[in-house]
Amino acid sequence: MRLVRFLAGKICWGHLILGLFALAVLLTSIFNAATTRANSDDEILPAVHIVSTNDLRADGKLSQHTQKPILILFSMEGCAYCEFVEEEHLKPMLRNQDYLDKVIIRRVMTDDYGDVIDFDGTKISSLNFSARYGAYVTPTVVFLNHEGVELSPRLLGVRNTEFYGGDLDEGLAISLRKIRQQLAANQTK
Q1: DSSP state at residue 55
Q2: Closest Cα partner for 103 from 158, 176, 53?
Q3: pTM (two decimals)
């Protein structure tokens, strides 16, 4: 008891409170770091890759066989909005089975001056192929049928990052509806 009275007279209450506050801050930061580390482990997504196509004839055959439209992203190296479309929209679509069941996703690099095989089997420069679909701005997204015919209005650039996913979904919905209409018309013949 004497020891407690002795210490009570010698302890500076301000230092004690400051020390307890520092201890509380330290424990809180340790807890937050552990929680953040645990949450970041939960957020690791499977790696996906957007196929850069050079054989549209093969993609067209796949589209015809699976009855899915082809989404083509016209992109350029170093294009920040192209990266936004890929990372925030197309790669999540590739991770989602609902989208994989509805669309074939491909990329054409407009600054790659090589040739691609067109839907009819002829060679065409990637620049001329991009020009055919009005992809003078990157990113440009088009939805095509198995013959390379546009199914919905193209998305030129990124007008609004908040609504871009809705624009993609609308283009896909229009494309799927047109493909189903074409299939129904072919079956009645």
Answers
A1: B
A2: 176
A3: 0.75
